[in-house]
Specification:
The chain crosses the membrane at residues 20-53, 65-88, 140-164, 206-224, 230-251, 263-284, 304-330. This protein has 361 residues and is an all-alpha fold. It is 83% helix and 0% strand. Helix 3 crosses helix 4 (119-129), helix 8 (180-222) runs antiparallel to helix 9 and helix 8 packs antiparallel against helix 12 (297-331).
Length: 361
């Protein structure tokens, strides 16, 4: 090639596109077919990350032995998980049975709302909401919680073995690498991924607990039925940015609209809990998470749709943590780093900010 000739680009081979398509198809089919096995394992992995983060915090604060800190962290996290699944599981059947009562009371609610919003809006609400089968909605929302309660022992077993393999895995990773330099690089990447996941899962859990605790106090003061269930759902739904916080307000607000004769409790939940969700989501959440959730808004919606389609309701709860895991892993693999950049919100990754500092422009 002479200097005057422009450089030629290597054409994208059809075989490469074919192979990538086949691999992606097999991955999606594997996720769908192996949901009953992969969902408990994924939950166990995220719980394990949370336990390690809590254990490290206990060691930093109390200088306790590693085994004692691990035991305390496992006890606290698994006890909290059991309490959450027990509350949802124990109230699932009762709520499903009484859902028909809410349907029969809905006409009375429509009549009360007519004087406030007018006949046009009332007709729209009646035509679009009166046909909703509340019993089916209750079973869909709470059925997954009952299944999760049944799988609690399996998840606990996974967590126990993951904790037991924590130190041995590092040694096996160095041996499997076959090269001390490669082993050190793999350990460094694993440390970076683990730190990022610990920060995200730990901070997001704390924020969700604060939001659920404040919301539960409001529900109890109002005397809302199934206050514990709505608080637990608020905790879980806060792992879904934007959409989750809206849903967490809509469900208890609708129950308040049906349960109480006045519209006051409904307005308190909508504006009170809605304001709490807005403040925490727009100020506390970004302040604590920093750039740990630097994901494209479109990617968040796309991930929510994908994981919900593949794994159902549990997939919706896990969509953001799973996508964060993928983004972090891609960002530490040079060949996949361009994909991580495309997945990010502004094209910069966490390690870019550490290296170059924040953008002051």
């Amino acid at each position: 090639m002479t200097p005057s000739e422009p450089p030629t680009r290597t054409p994208l081979r059809l075989s490469v596109v074919r192979d990538v398509t086949i691999v992606l198809t097999l991955v999606v089919l594997g996720l769908y077919a192996g949901a009953s096995f992969l969902i408990p394992l994924t939950i166990a992995l995220l719980i394990n990350v949370l336990i390690i983060a809590l254990s490290d915090r206990v060691i930093a604060l109390t200088r306790a032995p590693v085994w004692l800190a691990n035991l305390a962290a496992v006890t606290v996290v698994l006890a909290g998980l059991f309490m959450i699944t027990y509350i949802l599981g124990s109230q699932a059947t009762q709520f499903a049975r009484t859902a028909g009562t809410y349907e029969s009371q809905f006409d009375g609610v429509i009549n009360r709302v007519t004087g406030l919003v007018g006949n046009d809006v009332t007709s729209f609400v009646r035509d679009n909401l009166i046909s909703i089968d509340m019993t089916s909605v209750a079973r869909i929302l709470l059925g997954s919680a009952t299944s999760m309660l049944n799988q609690f022992f399996l998840i606990s077993l996974y967590v126990a073995f993951l904790m037991a393999e924590r130190l041995a895995f590092r040694k096996k990773l160095r041996i499997a690498a076959g090269n001390p330099v490669t082993g050190a690089e793999l350990s460094s990447v694993l440390d970076a991924i683990t730190f990022s996941l610990q920060r995200y899962v730990g901070v997001k859990t704390f924020i969700s607990l604060v939001t659920a605790g404040i919301s539960y106090s409001v529900f109890r003061v109002l005397g809302l039925e199934y206050a514990e269930t709505w608080a637990v759902l608020t905790f879980a739904l806060n792992f879904i940015p934007s959409i989750g916080s809206i849903i967490a307000v809509i469900f208890p607000a609708m129950i308040a609209l049906v349960q109480f004769e006045t519209i006051g409790p409904f307005l308190i939940i909508v504006f009170g809990c809605g304001t709490i969700q807005f403040l925490i989501g727009n100020f506390l959440d970004p302040a604590l998470l920093g750039r740990s959730l630097n994901m494209s808004t479109f990617l968040v919606i796309l991930a929510l749709t994908f994981w919900t389609t593949v794994w159902g309701l549990i997939g919706a709860f896990l969509s953001v943590p799973l996508t964060v895991c993928i983004l972090i892993i891609f960002s530490h693999i040079p060949a996949l780093r361009p994909i991580a950049v495309l997945m990010s919100l502004d094209g910069r990754l966490a390690d870019d900010v550490k290296s170059h500092g924040p953008d002051r422009g």
